[in-house]
Structure formats: C-alpha cells, structure tokens
Amino acid sequence: MLTPDGDFWQQVAAYTLSEIGEGVHVVDRYGITLAYNEALGKMEDLRPKDVIGRNFLEVYPSLTVETSLFLEVMRTGEPINKRIQSYTTINGKEVSVLVSIYPIIIRGERVGAIEISRSILKESGVTRQEIGPLTGSKQVKGVKPKGQTARYTFSSIITRNEKMKELLAKAQRAALTDSPVLVYGRTGTGKEMLVQAIHNASPRSAGPFVAQNCAAIPENLLEGLLFGTVRGAFTGSYDRAGVLELANGGTFYLDELTSMSPTLQAKLLRVLEEGYAQRIGDVRRYPINVRFVASLNVSPTEAVRQGLIREDLYYRLGVVQLELPPLCERRDDIPLLVEHFLDQCNEKIRFRRVKRVSDEVMDLFMNYDWPGNVRELAHVIEGATVVAEKDCIEIWNLPPYMRTLHSSSAVAVAFRREEGSHDRLRGAMQQYERQLISRVLNESGGNISKAARILGIPRQTMWAKVKRLGIRQHV
Fold first, then answer.
1. Nearest to 344 by CA among 303, 304, 298, 378
2. pLDDT, tens digit, for every residue of 41-75?
3. From the CB of residue 355, how many other CB atoms can be counted at a distance below 10 Å?
4. Tally of CA atoms within 13 A in the half-sphere of 90 that contains its CB
5. Strand ranges, E, within 185-296
6. Pairing between β-strand 251-255 and β-strand 291-296 as defined by DSSP bridges
7. CA-CA distance, 338 to 346, in Å (whole number)?
8. Domains parsed from the chain with CATH numbers
9. pLDDT for 455-466, tens place per residue?
C-alpha cells in the first residue's frame, strides 16, 4: 500500500493548482508569494512567474496594511469567508473578487496564509449582504501612481550572489514596516534602486516617492526646499510647500546625507522625533507622515567618526541598515549583469543586435576591480554596444582605459590563475627555453656550435644556457 510522502503531496498540489477553477494565492509570514495559479492570473491579467517571489503589496499597490484582507488574517489568525476584495494590480487593472482567506498555522505559529478567489461575475445565488461589506482601497486623488517616480522593484535587482540575496531578503522584511532605513555602499552600487524597491514593496507604495539629493542644492536653498517657505520670510520668498509636505503618505528619500550641514541635520532630527515641520517664516506647524530613507557613500560609523553625520541623527535614521556590496565582491553576478545590460542596449539600438561579449572581454570583466561598480559596467556595455561592428563585443570595442589595462590585466590573470603553483612567469619562460634548446640540440645531433647557429646565439651563450638549465646533451 502506498504511503504518501512529501513528493506525492507536492505533485498533488501542483496538479490541483493548475486545474482548479478558483484563484489560489499563498504567501509566507512576510507577505512573499509562494504560490499563484493560472486561474487567478486570468482574473488579474498577471503571469504566475511575475508574481511568485514578490511581496503581494508590491503586486497590488492600492492595498495597504489597513485594507489588505491577507494582512488582517495574518494579524488576527482568524479566517475570512466570502468577502469582496477590490484592488488595483501592478499593471493597472482594477479587480473585484470574492475571497476566502485562511491562516497557515504550524506548531502554533502563523507562518502564512492562503487565499481562494472567485470572480464575482461568475458567482450566482450569493447576495452582497451574505458576503459582507465591500473592502479595499482605491487610488487617492492627486497622488501619482506607482512607477512615475519609483520605477524599480525587487524583481528589477538582478543577482545570484548569496550576500546580495541575504540583503534583499532583509530589505523585503524591512519594507513591510514603517521603520527608517539607512542604505550605504560605494558609488554606483545601486542604492536608489534598492530604496525604490523598498518603497514599491511597502504599504506606502500607492503614495508619493520623493527623492532629494542633498549635494545637488546649495546649503542656503536646501532648508527652504525641504521645509517650504511663506511669503515675506525673506526677499523674493513666496508660499511654497517643502518636499517633506509633498512626500506625505509616502516615502521621503535623502540621498548623500553627508552633504547636509549639522545645523540642518538637527532640524531634520526634530521632524523625525516630533512628526511635525515648520515652513521658513511661518509660526504654524504641519504634520509629517512619511517613511524616511537615507543613503551614504561611506559606512555610517565612519561618517559619524568624521563628523559628517550627527550621532543622534544616525541612531534615529539607522534603525534598519543595509550595506550594498561593491561589484568586485559579487563577481558571480557579472555575467548576469552583462546579459541584462546587453538586452537593455539592444532595446535602445534597434538597427543592430549585439548578442554577447567575447571570452577575452568576459575574462577582463571578471578580473577588473570596477571602481564605478554596476553603473560603470552598464556604461561600458552601452559604449561598446554602440561601436561594435558585429554581434560580439571585442577588446577593441571597450573604452581606452580598459584597453590599456588589457595587457597588464592578462598578466595579472595568469598570475592569479597560477597562484600557489611553481609556474610563475619566469618559471614558464625557463621551461619553454629548456624545451626549445633540448629539441634543437637533439636535431643537431648534440652539436653545440650547430645548435647555436640555428638559434642565432653565440656558442658561449649556448654553453652557458645548457649548463644553467641542466640540459643533457644527446650524441
């Protein structure tokens, strides 16, 4: 008699999901989609592969912590039976479905939830009173839809690197909260991409995403830009809302925070602590309801040590800290990124398609230190794609600084590959020299003078080489 095991039930589940007429959506405790079937995809105009692995709030940007029935079930542990849920999907489709949601509880712990959805249009014999009130949320008027300012999601971040995967998992968990986040890493590592992904996976994703580069604005103008001004506060001033007000209900991102003066940092700290801000020249205060995210090009502790960031502001902003590794520490991602950037460039340059890079170019890429990180790689690929004459990028298509590095890089690669062995460059040359002289001596019947003439070197030099290399003469 068959005793069903894990593989047995896995196949049963797979066939059931593919054949059942109702929509099925399963998430874990963090809201990450584990299962999503074709039936639900037809209702929402989405493909399972585009949903699985993503946070469900990222897929349904109109839902919030308060309006999501999924989160209600995971919060209370109580099932919901036959309730209408209305929402907008990530592709802009408005959907209303009849849902039943059940918590998944293992050993007394809530580890996720499963939702069964039915199309309201196909339901018969069920009244609105029986299924309960309409539940959901719609786009707030005056709020820009997701994607106009924050276009990146977690699925936009390409990686197979284990360190990056751990970072993204941590970021996805942080996205579900309202805690401040501090992202740091070298220039070009993709800090703003990660910040946008956090916003789009957060309960605030339907709200605005406002980014402010602190280094791009002179200090005397930055305060007015952040907090706003009132008419008459100073010469030429007028009533204008600050970017903090504009970010209300969404995410406020401060890039290059180290460029902000300590005085302005103290005012920002007060906003973080009190939740209120004040326009320049105004006596009134207005409430601020934003999720703060900031980024640095150096480690936070180093920034504090150098006096670039106030210590109290660091503790307030650094509740969740995410360090993006440089590209030289995630070399296993380089082939994936090259393929991705080639696809992007081919979309822009439609008259010619570049399919790959040569082995020599990939070898150089894998051993180059990439001081400009992912941004530098993207620009190198774009430039090489433009000038490439065929469907393959060669060394001579690369920027001049990379071409000049090629020779020395090739030597460095050889040394790196032979690390730990005795075949260094000098040893390899000696081995080749020994083999060549031995062969010529053998062909010359062991005649030193004849062998020296063939090789074009003096007889005395030939004798010295034979002795130094320990070559036995064949007579």
1. 378
2. 988 889 998 899 888 888 888 887 667 888 888 88
3. 11
4. 20
5. 209-213, 228-229, 240-241, 251-255, 276-277, 286-287, 291-296
6. parallel
7. 12
8. 16-136 (3.30.450.20), 154-323 (3.40.50.300), 329-417 (1.10.8.60), 425-469 (1.10.10)
9. 777 777 778 778
